Amino acid sequence: MNIFLILIAYIILTPLTGGLLTGLDRIITARMQSRIGPPLLQPFYDVAKLFSKENLVVRKAQNLFIIFHLLFLIVTGALFFCGGDFLLVVFAFALAGVFFILGGYRTSSPYSHIGSERELIQMMAYEPMLIITAIGLYMTTHSFNVFDIMSAGKPLLPQLLGIFLGFLFILPIKMRKSPFDLSMSHHAHQELVKGITTEFSGPTLALLEIAHWFELILILGIIILFFPNNVWLGLAVECAVFFLVILVDNTFARLRWQTVLKASWLATFILGMGNIFILSILKICHS
Questions:
Q1: Distance between CA 136 and CA 143 in Å, rounded?
Q2: What is the rounded CA–CA span in Å between residue 208 and residue 67?
């Protein structure tokens, strides 16, 4: 019964919270650029307007892939917030991304195709760090189960500082922020127009925006796992990280895909694998 209530609360509250965070993101960005910015509820107005528009498609299958993309993101978040296997969460998260890429490839636009290719590159950049995060959490709690991790009763950040920093490094990729927003842009003022989403419009584009809200809440929720003994501290760190990512987005220009891939793998190897190596050495010494 408790899991059922958590699931209902997740499905209802996640898009509301994600939309509000997106609106807050726009306001903070506007203030950083000396603008007034839109109202806090503007993302909800935008989605409602998109649902009211005609659904124009190049190929009908592209919409089907986006529906599966949203459904798998919802399932991924449900697994996470209902205390499921974190390793399964990582793989389901990747599968949701695959459907998004397939939707981009299904259109006839060269901009969308290039955006899909860049989305694949981004997956190559961040997936190793997500898997290492799962491994690090297992090594410190001896479980992949989210409920078990949150019941650890001890701070995990001191043991997983390198993995935490590596996770923060790839966070802008999943939040689609500069300097890692390679595959798409919220504004059609770049070399790929709107990248992978160029040929999506109307209700389908609204579903993509809602999917981004689910994705945002999930990726921020993972930060809590590093603070199982103090959820309020974890929430405070989430807020600080959210502001930091927006600051970076307004400070740095987009990098080339080669630089993104090299930098992400370097951070994964040094911070992630280095942390795993230290944990392994400590485990051997204690045994």
A1: 10
A2: 9
Q: What is the pLDDT of residues 218-269, one digit of tens each?
A: 999 999 999 998 899 999 999 999 999 999 988 888 888 889 999 999 999 9
ω before 172 within 30° of 0 (cis)?
A: no
CB atoms inside a 10 Å sphere around CB 70: 21
**CA pair distance 167, 157, nearest whole angstrom:** 12
Cα–Cα distance, 271 to 236 (Å, whole number)? 23
* Alpha carbons 191 and 216: distance in angstroms, whole number: 25
259's CB contacts (< 8 A; 6+ apart) are: none
Cα Rg for the chain, rounded, in angstroms?
19
Q: What is the pLDDT of residues 184-221, one digit of tens each?
A: 766 555 666 677 888 888 898 999 999 999 999 999 99
**CA 117, CA 32: separation in Å to the nearest integer?**
32
Q: How far is CA 231 from CA 28, 114, 155, 221, 238, in A?
A: 25, 41, 10, 11, 10
> CB neighbours (10 Å) of residue 46?
17
